[in-house]
C-alpha cells in the first residue's frame, strides 16, 4: 500500500473519491433563508411529523439518506459503510436512523465538524480500498440543541449578540470509488485547539483558532496558499469567528479577502432573520455543502473548494465546571476535474 | 489501490497493523478485581486527584496515552492520528485530553464499542497508507456514568440484578505500520441492531443481538467458524448477554463453548464484588484488551483473538421517550505471527 499522506496532518488521496450525489433537508428558518432553493426538502413543521425534536432529527436524517440514495439510483445495500453523528447526547439522532438501514455503521462525534469528519473518513475508506460506496451524514436541530446546550425554549432566555442559531437540517453525501462528479482530492485532520474562550455563547471565537490552525497546516503541508482555491469555506464560525480568522491570517500577511466565506453567514439573511452572529450546528455546514455548494460545483461556478468543518468541543457539564471551549477543524479539498 | 474488503461487512488488511504497545489504567474496583496485575496504573482515588469525575476521566486518558507512548519509546509528535471517544455527553473526556497532545484527532461515538471502533479505523488508516502510527483510545468512569445515565449516586438508587457496573478505566493502544507484536488481520464493521429491549437496566440483552449479528457476519464473510480463534471475547455483555449470545448460536447449531468469553464477566469477581451482571462501559473491553489480553498474547497464551466491542446506543432522553435500545458490535481479529 503506498503512502497517501503529506506533511504533519494532510492526506492526499491516490484514488480520489467521487461525490456522487448529496441531499439537504431543512426546517422553517432555512426555508425562509437565502439558500432555500438548493434544499431537497424543507418542512415548516419543526417536528417533521414526529412527537419530539429528537425524533425529528432522526426523521430528517432518514429523509436525507433516502433522498440521496434515490438521486443516485442506489439502495441501502449498495452502501458499504455509513459515517455519521450529531450533537445530541450519545448521538441518538444518527443511531436511531441507522436502525432501519442495515448499513455497516461507524459513529462519530466531531461536534459541528461532523460533515467534514465523515467525508474525511469516507474518503479514507474509498481511497484505501475498504469500500466502493460510503455515506457521510449529520444533522442538528435548533430546538433539541437549545434544550440540551442552553435552556428549554419556554424559559424565553435572552440571546447575546455573539450567539448563533443552530440550523435545523440534515446533509447527506454519497461517495463512490467510480462515477462522475466533483472529487475529494485531499483532507487535513485537525488538532484540538484551545485559546481559553469560556463564553458558551461565543462559539465563533472558540472555533476560530482551530480553523486558523488547520488552514495554516493545510497550506503548509501542500505548499499552497489560499489562492489555490476558488472558495474556502468554514463550517459555522458566524460573523465574529469569520472576522477573527481573516484577522489572524492578515497578521501573517496572508490575504483571505474574496476567497473566504463561512456557512454560518451564508445560510441566513442577517438583515431579515434574527439570528445574531449567524448559523451553527452540525447541520449548518452539512446543508450548505450538500445543498448550495454541491450544486454550484455541478454548475461549474466553483471548481475547487476547501470545505472546513469546525466544531466546538464543549458540553454543558464542561461549562459548569468552568472549562474553556476547545475547538477542532477538519478541511476537505473538493475539486471538479475535466 | 487494491481491495481490502470481503463479503458485506469485513475488512481484510493487506498491510497488517502491529499492536506496538498498550496501556491500561483503572480505579478502586478494578484494583480489587481478578485482572489487577495486568494494569499499568491503578488508583484507589476515584477522582484521580481531580475536582470532578469528568476531569478524572480526562486524567485517566492522559495517563493511558502518556504510559503507552513511554512504553513504545515514542512522543506525541510520532503519532499521525488519534482515534478516540467516550460515554460522556459530547465526549468531553477525550476532547479535553487532546488539548495537551497536539495530535491530529478524529472523535468517535460508538458507546461501549469505542475501543473496537478506534482499532478498526486506526487499522484502516495504517493499512490504507494514511498513517505510520496511530493511537486508539477510550475510557469510562463509574460515577460519571451513573450520574449521566441513571441517578446521582447520593440518591442511593437500587440496582436490579440485570444491571452492570461501569468500569472506571482507560485503555490505549499504539498501532504501527512497522514493528513487532500481535497484528490486526481483519475487522467486521457492525450494523445497528434493535430487538426491542426497553429496560435501560438490561444492556446485556440489548447488545447481545448486535454481537450475534456481527459474529455471524464475520464467520460468513471469512468462511470460518468460531474454532478459527483461540478466544472470542465480547465487550461488556455481562453474564446475561453472554448467555444469550451462546444460546443464539446454539440454535444455529454453532457451539461457542470453551472459546467464547466476555470482558464484562472477566473483569470482576462476581462472588466477592457486588457488580450484579458484570462490568460495562467503554473502559471495560478497553482495559481487558489493553491490560490482560495483550499481555496474554505477548506470552503466547493466546495466538488468535477475535475482540468484539459492543455498544448500547441509547441515551437518557431516548429512554424517557419510550424508545427501545439499539446495539452495535465491531469485531477485530488480532493474530500473533511467527
Proportion of residues in β-strands of chain A = 15-25%
Outline type of chain A:
globular
Give the CATH level 1 class of the largest domain in chain A. Answer: Alpha Beta
User: What is the fold named in CATH at topology level of the largest domain in chain A?
Assistant: Peroxisomal Thiolase, Chain A, domain 1
From the N-terminal CA to the C-terminal CA of chain A, the straight-line distance is 27 Å
Tell me what the CATH architecture of the largest domain in chain A is: 3-Layer(aba) Sandwich
The count of domains of chain A is: 2
Protein architecture, described:
- Two copies of one chain form a homodimer.
- The first copy, chain A, has helices at 28-31, 53-71, 92-98, 114-127, 142-149, 203-222, 238-251, 263-266, 282-298, 316-320; strands at 5-6, 10-12, 18-26, 41-42, 81-86, 105-107, 133-140, 165-166, 169-176, 183-188, 231-234, 260-262, 279-280, 304-312, 327-335.
- With 338 residues, the first copy, chain A, is an alpha/beta fold.
- The first copy, chain A, has two domains: 15-176, Peroxisomal Thiolase, Chain A, domain 1 (3-Layer(aba) Sandwich); 183-335, Peroxisomal Thiolase, Chain A, domain 1, CATH 3.40.47.40.
- The longest helix of chain A is centred in the middle third of the chain and has 20 residues, at 203-222.
- Chain A is globular.
- The first copy, chain A, starts with a strand and ends with a strand.
- The interface between A and B is large, with 64 and 64 residues.
Amino acid at each position: 500500500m503506498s503512502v497517501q499522506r503529506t506533511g504533519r496532518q494532510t492526506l492526499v488521496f491516490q484514488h480520489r473519491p467521487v461525490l456522487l450525489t448529496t441531499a439537504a433537508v431543512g426546517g422553517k428558518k432555512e426555508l425562509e433563508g437565502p439558500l432555500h432553493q438548493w434544499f431537497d426538502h424543507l418542512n415548516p413543521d419543526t417536528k417533521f411529523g414526529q412527537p419530539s425534536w429528537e425524533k425529528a432529527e432522526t426523521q430528517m436524517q432518514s429523509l436525507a439518506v433516502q433522498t440521496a440514495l434515490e438521486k443516485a439510483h442506489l439502495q441501502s445495500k449498495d452502501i458499504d459503510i455509513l459515517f455519521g453523528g450529531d450533537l445530541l447526547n450519545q448521538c441518538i439522532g444518527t443511531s436511531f436512523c441507522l436502525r432501519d438501514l442495515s448499513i455497516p455503521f461507524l459513529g462519530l462525534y466531531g461536534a459541528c465538524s461532523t460533515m467534514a469528519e465523515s467525508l474525511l473518513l469516507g474518503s479514507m475508506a474509498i481511497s484505501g480500498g475498504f469500500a466502493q460506496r460510503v455515506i457521510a451524514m449529520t444533522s442538528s436541530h435548533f430546538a433539541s440543541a437549545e434544550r440540551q446546550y442552553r435552556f428549554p425554549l419556554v424559559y424565553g432566555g435572552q440571546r447575546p449578540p455573539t450567539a448563533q442559531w443552530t440550523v435545523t437540517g440534515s446533509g447527506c453525501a454519497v461517495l463512490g470509488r467510480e462515477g462522475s462528479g466533483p472529487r475529494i482530492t485531499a483532507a487535513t485532520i485537525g488538532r484540538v485547539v484551545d485559546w481559553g474562550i469560556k463564553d458558551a455563547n461565543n462559539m465563533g471565537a472558540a472555533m476560530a483558532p482551530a480553523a486558523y490552525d488547520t488552514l495554516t497546516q493545510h497550506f503548509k503541508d501542500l505548499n499552497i496558499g489560499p489562492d489555490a482555491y476558488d472558495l474556502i469555506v468554514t463550517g459555522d464560525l458566524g460573523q465574529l469567528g469569520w472576522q477573527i480568522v481573516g484577522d489572524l491570517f492578515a497578521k501573517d500577511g496572508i490575504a483571505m479577502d474574496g476567497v473566504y466565506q463561512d456557512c454560518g453567514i451564508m445560510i441566513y439573511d442577517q438583515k431579515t432573520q434574527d439570528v445574531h452572529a449567524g448559523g451553527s450546528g452540525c447541520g449548518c455546514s452539512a446543508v450548505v455543502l450538500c445543498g448550495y455548494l454541491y450544486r454550484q460545483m455541478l454548475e461549474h461556478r466553483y471548481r475547487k473548494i476547501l470545505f472546513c468543518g469546525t466544531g466546538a468541543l464543549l458540553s454543558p457539564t464542561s461549562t459548569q465546571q468552568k472549562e474553556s471551549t476547545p475547538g477542532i477543524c477538519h478541511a476537505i479539498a473538493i475539486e471538479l476535474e475535466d
